[in-house]
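name: query_chain
kind: protein
chains: 1
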Amino acid sequence: MKATMFLALLAPVALASVAYAADLKPAQEEAKTKFDVMAKSMTTEINAACGTKFDTIKTDFENYDASHFTRQAPGTVCSELTYDLKEICKSAPYKKALQSKIKTVSCMMKASSGPQLEVTRGGVVLHLNQDQSASGAVGINVIKAALDK
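structure:
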């Protein structure tokens, strides 16, 4: 009885996931597949450096446009955020703050009219753009400032 009820509750979630993946255009699906491979490695690196337990890097490939990534793949641009987080975690106080305040890491395809890198309530979001970098000292300072609040 419990297994049947569990499956009945899980079925709509599984179907929604299948429908979502089917909604991606072939170029989006291909880019997402490549990104997912890189994201797994990036997540492992962040977790090792920061003592965190991020499952994945969230993204929105339904907004992916190949013309915005002619020189660098989304995973390459997103890896800048990985670097920033690992650098921040070299400092014990910031590592501790990151562990307690940051619960998600996102690299979003949809352009933002606001900052390219932002720390939202419980997450770090990088709006991917191959032409503008928000990493290095700028990215580290943005994240540190948010952790200091």
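note: Residues 1-20 have pLDDT under 50 and may be disordered.
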